[in-house]
TrEMBL record:
Keywords, alphabetical: Oxidoreductase, Thiamine pyrophosphate
Gene3D superfamilies: 3.40.50.920, 3.40.50.970
Name this polypeptide is given: Alpha-ketoacid dehydrogenase subunit beta
Lineage summary: Bacteria, Bacillati, Actinomycetota, Actinomycetes, Propionibacteriales
Source organism per UniProt: Nocardioides aquiterrae
Cofactor(s) named in the record: thiamine diphosphate
Record bears the keyword Lipoprotein: no
InterPro entries hit by this protein: THDP-binding (IPR029061), Transketo_C/PFOR_II (IPR009014), Transketolase-like_Pyr-bd (IPR005475), Transketolase_C (IPR033248)
Domain Transketolase-like pyrimidine-binding: 17-192
Length: 338
């Protein structure tokens, strides 16, 4: 597949939507299909969320199902734990990525452990939506990439959509999952691009990675906001006669490594790109697994591209801080020079 991610089968009419609209439509569909689905978060009701992802849902489903919560993330998630134990499927919105930390204790000590603690007798069907990443001109606490901290926690599923079509399908699949899902949304992509959505199509499985651009010389792995940058880097490389394969990882816990291994065994080279810090980021785990499984196929070390190991900078210099086309392309060039 050489374009953006699309479902396998297209049988009906399509409409062009943004990621924000795709998520909104997916939430609406989930609420229509299951009266036990509830939305909770700061300003998700009357305002429709700061990014308007839940726009119009309280009006159509009522204040009992789309709940404007106090400014208290620990209380929001703790309340959702109780609802999940009572058979509901709460969908919690953390307004910005950096606001999740007051709820970190609830997520790691309760949400992640409840099913294991009860030997499977209790389920925790909860989705915690987190707009993550930078690129919107915001400050620290509004531009974080905390995915590795959650992927490191047993008992949590962690996924990251990168485009409008995946946003529509993945949010519904996450809500239907009986395990707690950390659902990461690249906020800079909310209103950036549109894609054709066919609601009658068959979606990919939730916990699967996907080749979004075929190539032969090196494999570039990305997720969330860096998928677009990786695709741009592949386009630029093509003008220089270099063929980069791009894989959208989509799921971070569990990782779906089979397509990655297959690709790296063909290309012999791999670059992992994410907005989080390079040190102990997702790229470290992915690079380790590739080295273990594809050692004799590698022609170069697995390289990582990410943010610098500093707190998030003032917005005027965030473009120098975040990995972009040039830094991904530079890593690919270094790999190809081996």
């Amino acid at each position: 597949m050489t374009g953006g991610a699309q479902p396998k089968v297209s049988t009906g009419s399509t409409q062009r939507v943004t990621l924000a609209k795709g998520l909104n439509m997916g939430l609406r569909r989930a609420m229509e299909d299951d009266p036990k689905v509830l939305l909770m978060g700061e300003d998700v009701g009357k305002l429709g969320g700061v990014f308007r992802i839940t726009d119009g849902l309280q009006k159509d489903f009522g204040e009992d199902r789309v709940i404007d919560s106090p400014l208290a993330e620990s209380g929001i998630v703790g309340t959702a734990v109780g609802l999940a134990l009572r058979g509901y499927r709460p969908v919690v919105e953390i307004q910005f990525d950096g606001f999740v930390y007051p709820a970190y204790d609830q997520i790691v000590c309760q949400v992640a452990k409840m099913q294991f603690r009860s030997q499977g007798k209790l389920k925790m069907p909860m989705v915690i939506r987190i707009p993550f990443g930078g690129g919107i001109g915001a400050v620290e606490h509004h531009s974080e990439s905390p995915e590795a901290q959650f992927a490191h926690t047993p008992g949590l599923k962690v996924v990251a959509c990168s485009n409008p079509v995946d946003g529509y399908w993945m949010i519904q699949q996450a809500i239907a999952c009986d395990d707690p899902v950390i659902f990461l949304e690249p906020k800079r992509q909310y209103h950036a691009d549109k894609a054709d959505l066919d609601e009658s199509a068959t979606p990919e499985p939730l916990f699967s990675s996907r080749v979004v651009r075929a190539g032969t010389d090196a494999t570039v792995l990305a997720y969330g906001p860096t998928v677009k940058s990786a695709m741009a880097a592949a386009e630029a490389a093509a003008t220089e006669g270099k063929s980069l394969e791009v894989i959208d990882l989509r799921t971070l816990s569990p990782l779906d490594m089979a397509p990655v291994y297959e690709s790296v065994r063909r290309t012999g080279r791999a670059v992992v790109a994410h907005e989080a810090h390079v040190n102990l980021g997702m790229g470290a785990e992915i690079a380790s697994r590739i080295t273990e499984e594809c050692f004799y196929s590698l022609e170069a070390p697995v390289l990582r591209v990410g943010a610098f190991d500093t707190p998030y900078p003032p917005s005027r210099i965030e473009e120098d801080y975040l990995p972009d086309l040039d830094r991904i392309l530079d890593a690919a060039d270094r790999s190809l020079e081996f």
